[in-house]
Please model this.
Amino acid sequence: MLACLIGREPVGRILDAPCGRGALSVRLQQMGFDVSCCDIDQGVFEAEGLPLTVANLNRDRLAYDDGTFDYIVCSGGLHRLCNIDYAVGEFARCLKAGGKLFISVPNYGCLWRRFLFLLLGSFGKDIDHPTFLQTTLEPEAHFRRNLTFTQLNHYLQRHGFAGVDVFNSKTETPNLLLSPLYPVIKCAALLCGPRLRAEYGAREANSRVILLGSYQVYIRACRT
Model:
Protein backbone atom coordinates (compact mmCIF):
# COMPACT_ATOMS: atom_id res chain seq x y z
CA MET A 1 0.00 0.00 0.00
CA LEU A 2 2.80 2.45 0.89
CA ALA A 3 4.52 1.74 -2.41
CA CYS A 4 1.26 2.57 -4.22
CA LEU A 5 0.93 5.88 -2.34
CA ILE A 6 4.55 6.84 -2.97
CA GLY A 7 4.23 5.77 -6.60
CA ARG A 8 1.82 8.67 -7.18
CA GLU A 9 4.66 11.11 -6.45
CA PRO A 10 7.42 12.27 -8.82
CA VAL A 11 10.56 10.17 -8.37
CA GLY A 12 13.15 11.66 -6.05
CA ARG A 13 15.44 10.85 -3.17
CA ILE A 14 13.82 8.75 -0.42
CA LEU A 15 14.89 7.36 2.96
CA ASP A 16 13.44 4.07 4.19
CA ALA A 17 13.72 4.10 8.00
CA PRO A 18 13.53 1.64 9.59
CA CYS A 19 14.01 -0.48 6.50
CA GLY A 20 14.08 -3.95 8.12
CA ARG A 21 14.93 -6.54 5.51
CA GLY A 22 14.76 -3.97 2.73
CA ALA A 23 11.88 -5.39 0.68
CA LEU A 24 10.17 -2.01 0.37
CA SER A 25 13.51 -0.35 -0.37
CA VAL A 26 14.08 -2.66 -3.32
CA ARG A 27 10.55 -2.02 -4.60
CA LEU A 28 11.07 1.73 -4.44
CA GLN A 29 14.38 1.45 -6.28
CA GLN A 30 12.67 -0.54 -9.02
CA MET A 31 10.12 2.29 -9.27
CA GLY A 32 12.93 4.74 -10.04
CA PHE A 33 13.54 6.34 -6.63
CA ASP A 34 17.02 7.08 -5.27
CA VAL A 35 16.81 5.00 -2.09
CA SER A 36 18.79 5.21 1.16
CA CYS A 37 18.19 2.76 3.99
CA CYS A 38 18.47 3.05 7.76
CA ASP A 39 17.87 0.52 10.54
CA ILE A 40 19.06 -0.38 14.02
CA ASP A 41 19.68 -4.01 13.04
CA GLN A 42 21.98 -4.63 10.09
CA GLY A 43 21.68 -8.38 10.68
CA VAL A 44 18.23 -8.54 9.04
CA PHE A 45 19.07 -6.37 6.01
CA GLU A 46 18.95 -8.31 2.72
CA ALA A 47 18.82 -5.61 0.01
CA GLU A 48 22.16 -5.99 -1.68
CA GLY A 49 23.50 -2.93 -3.44
CA LEU A 50 21.49 -0.40 -1.44
CA PRO A 51 23.28 1.86 1.08
CA LEU A 52 22.49 1.05 4.72
CA THR A 53 23.12 3.36 7.66
CA VAL A 54 22.92 1.72 11.09
CA ALA A 55 21.22 4.03 13.58
CA ASN A 56 18.93 3.97 16.59
CA LEU A 57 15.98 6.17 15.66
CA ASN A 58 15.25 6.74 19.34
CA ARG A 59 18.38 8.80 19.95
CA ASP A 60 20.89 8.91 17.07
CA ARG A 61 21.27 11.93 14.82
CA LEU A 62 20.81 10.50 11.33
CA ALA A 63 23.88 10.76 9.14
CA TYR A 64 22.22 12.98 6.55
CA ASP A 65 22.31 16.74 6.05
CA ASP A 66 19.28 18.92 6.67
CA GLY A 67 16.81 18.81 3.78
CA THR A 68 18.43 15.79 2.08
CA PHE A 69 15.32 13.85 1.09
CA ASP A 70 12.20 14.47 -0.97
CA TYR A 71 10.43 11.65 0.87
CA ILE A 72 10.84 9.49 3.96
CA VAL A 73 8.97 6.24 4.46
CA CYS A 74 8.55 4.64 7.88
CA SER A 75 6.82 1.31 7.40
CA GLY A 76 5.71 -0.41 10.61
CA GLY A 77 8.38 1.39 12.60
CA LEU A 78 7.04 4.18 14.79
CA HIS A 79 5.14 1.91 17.20
CA ARG A 80 8.47 0.14 17.79
CA LEU A 81 10.12 3.29 19.16
CA CYS A 82 10.23 4.47 22.76
CA ASN A 83 11.14 8.03 21.66
CA ILE A 84 8.82 8.80 18.74
CA ASP A 85 9.17 12.54 19.31
CA TYR A 86 12.89 12.42 18.56
CA ALA A 87 12.49 10.25 15.46
CA VAL A 88 9.78 12.45 13.93
CA GLY A 89 11.98 15.47 14.63
CA GLU A 90 14.86 13.85 12.74
CA PHE A 91 12.55 12.99 9.85
CA ALA A 92 11.47 16.63 9.70
CA ARG A 93 15.10 17.78 9.71
CA CYS A 94 16.14 15.43 6.92
CA LEU A 95 13.17 16.27 4.68
CA LYS A 96 13.17 19.17 2.25
CA ALA A 97 10.53 21.87 2.77
CA GLY A 98 7.42 20.44 1.14
CA GLY A 99 8.80 16.92 1.43
CA LYS A 100 6.47 14.10 2.43
CA LEU A 101 6.55 11.51 5.18
CA PHE A 102 4.78 8.19 4.56
CA ILE A 103 3.93 6.02 7.56
CA SER A 104 2.24 2.71 8.26
CA VAL A 105 1.29 1.66 11.80
CA PRO A 106 -1.12 -0.85 13.31
CA ASN A 107 -4.63 0.60 13.42
CA TYR A 108 -5.31 0.72 17.16
CA GLY A 109 -8.17 3.16 16.58
CA CYS A 110 -10.44 0.84 14.63
CA LEU A 111 -13.79 -0.15 16.10
CA TRP A 112 -12.97 -3.75 16.88
CA ARG A 113 -9.82 -2.78 18.80
CA ARG A 114 -11.68 -0.05 20.70
CA PHE A 115 -14.36 -2.61 21.55
CA LEU A 116 -11.70 -5.10 22.64
CA PHE A 117 -10.24 -2.48 24.97
CA LEU A 118 -13.69 -1.78 26.40
CA LEU A 119 -14.23 -5.47 27.17
CA LEU A 120 -10.74 -6.60 28.18
CA GLY A 121 -8.84 -3.42 29.03
CA SER A 122 -6.28 -4.18 26.33
CA PHE A 123 -5.84 -3.61 22.61
CA GLY A 124 -4.39 -7.11 22.26
CA LYS A 125 -1.11 -8.95 22.74
CA ASP A 126 1.85 -6.89 21.58
CA ILE A 127 4.09 -9.80 20.62
CA ASP A 128 5.83 -10.13 17.28
CA HIS A 129 5.66 -13.26 15.18
CA PRO A 130 8.99 -15.14 15.57
CA THR A 131 9.76 -14.49 11.89
CA PHE A 132 10.23 -10.80 12.65
CA LEU A 133 12.43 -10.99 15.74
CA GLN A 134 15.53 -8.77 15.66
CA THR A 135 19.06 -10.15 15.55
CA THR A 136 20.55 -7.32 17.62
CA LEU A 137 20.58 -7.53 21.42
CA GLU A 138 20.06 -3.78 21.80
CA PRO A 139 16.98 -3.53 24.09
CA GLU A 140 15.37 -0.64 22.21
CA ALA A 141 15.12 -2.81 19.10
CA HIS A 142 12.59 -5.01 20.91
CA PHE A 143 10.30 -2.26 22.20
CA ARG A 144 6.60 -2.17 21.16
CA ARG A 145 3.69 0.14 22.04
CA ASN A 146 0.01 0.55 21.23
CA LEU A 147 0.31 3.76 19.20
CA THR A 148 -2.93 5.48 18.18
CA PHE A 149 -3.36 7.98 15.37
CA THR A 150 -4.16 10.74 17.90
CA GLN A 151 -0.84 10.22 19.68
CA LEU A 152 1.08 10.14 16.42
CA ASN A 153 -0.70 13.23 15.13
CA HIS A 154 0.56 15.23 18.14
CA TYR A 155 4.17 14.41 17.21
CA LEU A 156 3.59 15.30 13.56
CA GLN A 157 2.07 18.66 14.44
CA ARG A 158 4.85 19.45 16.91
CA HIS A 159 7.49 19.03 14.23
CA GLY A 160 5.81 21.05 11.51
CA PHE A 161 3.97 18.42 9.50
CA ALA A 162 0.65 19.45 7.99
CA GLY A 163 -1.87 18.13 5.48
CA VAL A 164 -2.07 14.79 7.28
CA ASP A 165 -4.08 12.24 5.26
CA VAL A 166 -5.04 8.71 6.28
CA PHE A 167 -5.65 5.70 4.06
CA ASN A 168 -6.39 2.01 4.37
CA SER A 169 -5.95 -0.90 2.04
CA LYS A 170 -8.70 -1.45 -0.52
CA THR A 171 -8.50 -5.16 0.27
CA GLU A 172 -9.66 -4.61 3.86
CA THR A 173 -13.34 -5.17 4.66
CA PRO A 174 -15.11 -3.30 7.49
CA ASN A 175 -16.35 -5.08 10.57
CA LEU A 176 -20.06 -5.19 9.75
CA LEU A 177 -21.04 -6.25 13.27
CA LEU A 178 -19.58 -3.08 14.82
CA SER A 179 -20.18 -0.70 11.89
CA PRO A 180 -23.48 0.66 13.39
CA LEU A 181 -21.32 2.27 16.09
CA TYR A 182 -19.61 4.46 13.48
CA PRO A 183 -22.30 7.19 13.25
CA VAL A 184 -22.82 7.04 17.02
CA ILE A 185 -19.16 7.82 17.70
CA LYS A 186 -19.10 10.53 15.02
CA CYS A 187 -22.07 12.29 16.61
CA ALA A 188 -20.89 11.79 20.20
CA ALA A 189 -17.52 13.40 19.35
CA LEU A 190 -19.35 16.67 18.60
CA LEU A 191 -19.86 17.05 22.35
CA CYS A 192 -16.12 17.73 22.71
CA GLY A 193 -16.22 21.04 20.85
CA PRO A 194 -14.29 22.13 17.73
CA ARG A 195 -11.07 23.18 19.50
CA LEU A 196 -10.68 19.88 21.34
CA ARG A 197 -11.59 17.86 18.25
CA ALA A 198 -8.96 19.71 16.23
CA GLU A 199 -6.33 19.25 18.97
CA TYR A 200 -6.91 15.50 19.04
CA GLY A 201 -7.27 15.04 15.29
CA ALA A 202 -10.79 13.68 15.75
CA ARG A 203 -11.69 14.21 12.08
CA GLU A 204 -9.13 11.59 11.06
CA ALA A 205 -9.30 9.46 14.22
CA ASN A 206 -13.06 9.02 13.77
CA SER A 207 -12.98 8.72 9.99
CA ARG A 208 -14.25 5.69 8.10
CA VAL A 209 -10.63 4.88 7.20
CA ILE A 210 -9.65 4.39 10.84
CA LEU A 211 -12.90 3.40 12.58
CA LEU A 212 -13.99 0.92 9.92
CA GLY A 213 -10.48 -0.03 8.86
CA SER A 214 -8.66 -3.18 9.81
CA TYR A 215 -5.11 -4.04 10.86
CA GLN A 216 -3.09 -1.19 9.34
CA VAL A 217 -3.49 2.53 8.73
CA TYR A 218 -1.37 4.46 6.24
CA ILE A 219 -0.51 8.12 6.76
CA ARG A 220 0.89 10.82 4.47
CA ALA A 221 2.12 14.09 6.00
CA CYS A 222 3.78 17.09 4.36
CA ARG A 223 6.65 19.00 5.97
CA THR A 224 5.94 22.73 5.99
